[in-house]
Each structure stands twice: as C-alpha cells, then as structure tokens.
Specification:
The protein is mostly helical. It is 84% helix and 0% strand.
C-alpha cells in the first residue's frame, strides 16, 4: 500500500514530452511493419492442425448443453406432477372427510331413531337433534328415498305413527353403512395410489438430479478440453489473425503518433485510476480481514514458532513410533500419536492423554501381577487339597470359599475389561470428532486462502491493464447463460496466445521503450515492484495451501491407521472378555459342584478336579503371556514418558525462539 501511494504521488507530478523521439518512433514503426509482413506471408500457407477436433468438441458441448436443458425440463415436469397430485389428493381428502362426517351423522341419527321407536319413545325422539338431522335429510335429499318411503318418513317426523318406519330406517341405515365402508376403502386405495405416485416421481426427480450433476461436470471437463485444444499452439489460423491484427494496430498507432500528446494525458489519468482502484480493492475492510486470516503480519514470529512446535512434535512422535514398530497393535500409542498429529490439541492435552494412558497400562500390569500371584498360589493350594480331599469332606468349605474368591476376581476382571472396551470406544469417538474438526478447519483455511489469492490476482490484473497490457485479462463483455457460466468457470475457451515476435514480442518491447522513454521506465519499475510484491504474496498463499494439503493427507493416514489398530485391539479385548465370562460360568459350575460334594467324598474329589481345570482355563494364558505382556507395557510406558519429557521441554524452547526473534528485530 505504501508503494502504491508513493507511485501515485510521483505520477501526479510527472509531465511528459516526446517530440524529439518522433523520428525514432517512425523508424521503429517501419521495422516492426516489415517483421509482421514477413510473419503473415509465412502463416498464410499453413492451416489449422486441430480445427476438426475443435469443431467436434464444440458440437459435443452444444449437444451436452441441449441435453442439460432437456434434463432440467424433465426434472421440472416431475416436480410439477408431484405438486399437482398433492393438490388433487388434498381436495379429495377434504371432500372425503366432509362426506364421511355427513354419513356418520346421518347413520347416527337413524340409529337413535330406531332405538327410540323400538323403545316406544318416538315422540320424545322427535324433539332431539337427531330428529332434526333426519328432517333436513328428508327435505334436502328426496332422491335418496322412494315415493312411499319418503312420505312415510316425512309423516313420522311430523309427529305421525311409526308404522313401517322401522323397516325403512333399518334398510336405509344398512345401505348407508355399506356406502360409508365403500367410501373408506376407496379413500384408502386413493391414498396408496398417491403415495406410490409421489415415491416414483421423487425417485425419478433424484435420478434426473444425479444425471444433471453428472452432465454439468462433463460440460465443465469438456470446456477445459476444448480450451486446451484451442490453445495447444498449433492453431496457425489464430496466429495469422493475431499477426494481421497486430499489423493493423501498428499502422494505426504509427499514423496517430502526432496526436499522442493528448493520449498521454489520458494515459496518466488511467494510470492514476488503476492505482486508485488497486488501493481501494486492497484497502477494503473485507480484504484486510481476509489477509489477516491468511497472511502472517510482519511483526509475528509465526514461521519460527511453527518450526519450533513442529520440531518438538516430531521428536515426541519419533519416540512413540519407535515403540510402535515393536508393538504394532498398541492403541494407546496410536491415540497419543494421533493427538500429536492434530493441530488443534495443545501439548498440555497430549501430556494429560499420556498420563491417562500410562496410568491405565500400570493398572492393567498390576492386575496381571496380582492375577499371576493368585494363580500360582491357587495351583499350589489346589494340589494340596487334592491330596487330602479323599480323607476330609469338610475341606469342601475351603473349596467353596476359593471358588467364591475366584468368581469375585473374575467379576472384577470382567468389569475392568468392559471398562477398557468403553474407554477404547470413547477414544475412537474423540479421535473421530477431532479428525472431523481438523478437516473442517482445513477446508475453511483452503477456502479463505483461495479467496485471498483470487483477490490479489484481480488487483494484479488491474495493475497489468496499465503496466503490462499484454498480460491483462479482460472480463466477459456479455451476459452468459447458466450453462455458459459453468463452462467458463470450469475451464472455458481462453483467448488466443499472442504471436511470438509480434506486437507483444521483443521487438515491440524495444519500440515501447523508445516511445515512452524515461516516463515509461519509471512506470515499469514502480509498477513491477508492486506486481512483484503481489506475486510474493501469491507464492506465500500457495505455499500455505500446499503445506495444508500435505498435513491433511498425513493426518488422515495416521487417523486411519489408529482406527485399524483400535479395531484389532477391540476384537482381542472382546475375545478376552468372552473367555473370562466363560471362565466365570465354569467357576459357577465348579462352585455348585463343591456344594453338592459335601455329602460325598468322591464328589468332593471330582469338584476339586473341576476347580483345577477352571484355574487352568483362567490362568494358563496369562502365565504363558505374562512376561511378553509385561515387556510390551514397559516399552509403551517408557516411550510415552520419553514423549512427555520432550513435550514438557517445549515451553522453554518456544520462549527461546520468541526471545531470539525479538533480539533479531
């Protein structure tokens, strides 16, 4: 911004004179005209290598646009059919509800009339609302009754004798009940038909929507392919047209050179406008907020801080992954490594996780040690009991107590194993939530960085409009249809590449340098400085995008590996839980056998054998794997403690980085 404002001040003071350069200008005109004539003569003999392919691509693009329009029409038709069917169904339902209410009211009135007549209280009935309903029905719907039935019913309702009214009312009531049941069945069928139609049309709508999205994607890809084909470098016809236009422009420019003085004043005004537009564009509040989010400020030590934190994180990860190589299925190490890989969790959370995981491993090791001591003691005791069970039946009580202790131990171990499974599931859920948050933050960062890049490109393009017209990309001059906008956004046809050696070539560069002289040199130098600064900002943003993509990829891979390890360990824990539950069941059976064995020494001996068998089922695996499990847990705890020591030293390292950065400033 400071450079742009400085350039603006200088341009406002500049004046231009170029009368003495006119002869050199004319000489350069002649030189460029001869060079362009030579290029045009050579280009007139060659044709376009990919004209047929470009035409075919254009035809495909036109056909695809037509197909998209047809698909949209079909989609709109399906939606309209659903809306129309819904409207008809609502009207039918409303009419059915009214008709049903009337029928039920009439049937109810007839039922009350029949009851009153049969009970001999017809006169009292005529004073009720049900009688009034029947009177209205007889008066308003005479077509429902035969002549005699109508007259009899009317006479009765006016206070006459009941006579044959019971038969008339009963017959009418039965007919209306049948009609009502038929109407209800018809309404159910109509609802079922409507539901099936709406489901079919919704499915058709979803299919058309998927087809439309696929065709829109193909349209974008086809636009990119056509653009690449058009700019492949082999389109000699475009090259010839560009050279011809350059020659015409050159002749026009040379003929109008005597009027350049007024044009130069306009040029200065345009340059000031370009700088003002650029300043406004980059100084906008939204742009400043966007740059603050995506570009580090000059006073920040962001890069040095990132390097230090990354170094500490890498050292801690190295300690963990060395242990992971020896114990590949350790979910504890995997979750700590996953937490270190995440960018949102601070070191204090990772240290807390390490302490929690290490504490859990120590608890599990203590349980194994207690179980080993228990198993060895129980084996010795059971062998001694086996020797004396043939002599003393009373020793069965000891066996019963031992069985109860075993059950208590198994229950505690089952609860511990279940708690381990729950903790593992919770860790998986937390890791999944963390991964989702990091992925969302990554997408947000990519969106903001891309938006910042596009804004800087727009500002750079506005600067190029004046300083580097050959690099300026003009915006579209007409309103585009939806399909055209999609094609352009996804890679539409790009403008032809300027001819090498033509008006944008090295020869005309010299021509422009001669024409603009000292003034143009200042413009080029100052404008180039600002544009170069914009290029540096774009490079920094692209670097951030690349680093972000790499970090996201690595984090996803680590997350997937942790999930795989957790899954394998959970399967093993579930298997161990099943074994412990089976051992508990076996111990329950053994306990029941000990109780029964009180009455028989032989039963006591058999119970003792069952108890020893249950001990083997419960203890053999632990005794066989005890040393291996102890060594594995020791290695895991050691690795996590090394990582914790590294992380505990991180705060001091970061303070040193900040202090060094401050002193260097």
């Amino acid at each position: 911004m400071t450079m742009l404002q400085s350039i603006t001040k200088k341009i406002e003071k500049e004046g231009k004179t170029g009368e003495d350069l006119f002869e050199k200008f004319i000489c350069e005109c002649n030189t460029q005209e001869a060079a362009l004539n030579k290029q045009i003569e050579g280009g007139q003999t060659s044709g376009s290598d990919n004209a047929a392919a470009s035409a075919a691509g254009g035809a495909q693009q036109t056909q695809l646009i037509a197909d998209i329009a047809d698909t949209k029409a079909s989609r709109a038709s399906a939606k309209e059919t659903i809306a129309m069917s819904t409207g008809i169904r609502e009207k039918e339902a409303k009419a059915f509800a009214a008709s049903k209410q009337d029928s039920e009211s009439n049937i109810d009135a007839m039922g009350k009339a029949l009851t009153a007549i049969k009970q001999g209280v017809g006169g009292a009935f005529l004073q009720t609302n049900a009688a009034k309903t029947l009177r209205d029905l007889v008066e308003n719907k005479q077509d429902l009754f035969s002549g005699s039935d109508h007259d009899d019913l009317a006479a009765f309702l006016q206070g006459g004798q009941s006579g044959e009214i019971i038969g008339v009312l009963s017959q009418l009531k039965e007919e209306w009940e049948k009609d009502l049941a038929s109407a209800v069945a018809t309404e159910k069928d109509a609802i079922a038909t409507y539901t099936e139609l709406v489901a079919a049309k919704n499915k058709e709508f979803e299919s058309l929507q998927a087809s439309l999205e696929e065709k829109m994607t193909r349209l974008g890809e086809l636009g990119v392919a056509n653009a690449e084909m058009a700019n492949a470098g082999g389109d000699t016809a475009d090259q010839l047209a560009a050279n011809s236009k350059a020659l015409a422009d050159l002749k026009e420019a040379c003929a109008a050179r005597t009027k350049e003085w007024d044009a130069e004043k306009k040029s200065r005004a345009e340059e000031l406008l370009a700088l003002a537009d650029t300043i406004k564009m980059l100084n906008d509040d939204d742009a400043l907020d966007l740059f603050k989010k995506t570009l580090a400020s000059a006073s920040a030590s962001f890069m040095q801080m990132s390097v230090s934190v990354s170094t500490v994180r890498a050292r801690a990860l190295a300690s963990l992954r060395e242990a992971q190589q020896k114990h590949k299925k350790s979910s504890a190490l995997a979750f700590v490594a996953l937490a270190l890989n995440g960018k949102k969790a601070g070191f204090e959370k990772v240290v807390a996780l390490i302490d929690r995981m290490a504490g859990q491993l120590k608890i599990e090791q203590k349980m194994d040690a207690d179980k080993k001591s228990y198993c060895n003691a129980e084996f010795d005791q059971s062998d001694d009991e086996k020797k004396v069970l043939t002599r003393k039946v009373a020793d069965a009580e000891t066996a019963i107590m031992d069985a109860k202790e075993t059950l208590a131990t198994l229950v505690a171990e089952i609860k511990t194993t279940q708690a381990t499974i729950v903790a593992s599931d919770k860790a998986v859920a937390e890791a999944t939530a963390q991964r989702q948050e990091e992925n969302a933050a990554y997408k947000q960062t990519m969106t903001e960085s891309t938006a910042a890049s596009e804004l800087i490109k727009m500002a750079k393009n506005r600067m190029n409009k004046f300083y580097n017209p050959d690099l300026y990309e003009a915006p579209p001059k007409r309103e585009l249809s939806e399909e055209d906008r999609i094609a352009v956004n996804m890679g539409g046809t790009a403008p032809p590449t300027p001819a090498p050696g033509g008006i944008a070539g090295t020869g005309i560069t010299a021509f422009v340098q001669v024409e603009e002289h000292v003034q143009s040199q200042k413009k080029t130098e100052e404008g180039a400085g600002v544009i170069a600064m914009m290029d540096l900002l774009l490079k920094d943003l692209q670097g951030q995008i690349t680093v972000g993509e790499t970090d996201e990829k690595n984090a996803q891979e680590d997350y997937q590996k942790a999930m795989d390890d957790a899954k394998a360990e959970r399967i093993a824990d579930a298997k161990l839980l099943g074994e412990k539950i089976s051992a508990k069941a076996e111990t329950d059976a053994a306990l029941e056998g000990h109780v029964d064995a009180k009455a028989s020494a032989s039963q006591e001996l058999m119970g003792n054998g069952e108890y020893i068998a249950s001990l083997h089922a419960d203890c053999d695996w632990l005794l066989e794997k005890y040393d291996q499990r102890e060594a594995a847990r020791t290695d895991e705890i050691d690795a996590m403690m090394k990582a914790k020591d590294v992380l505990n030293g991180a705060d001091y390292s970061l303070l040193e980085v900040k202090r060094s950065h401050f002193l260097s400033k």
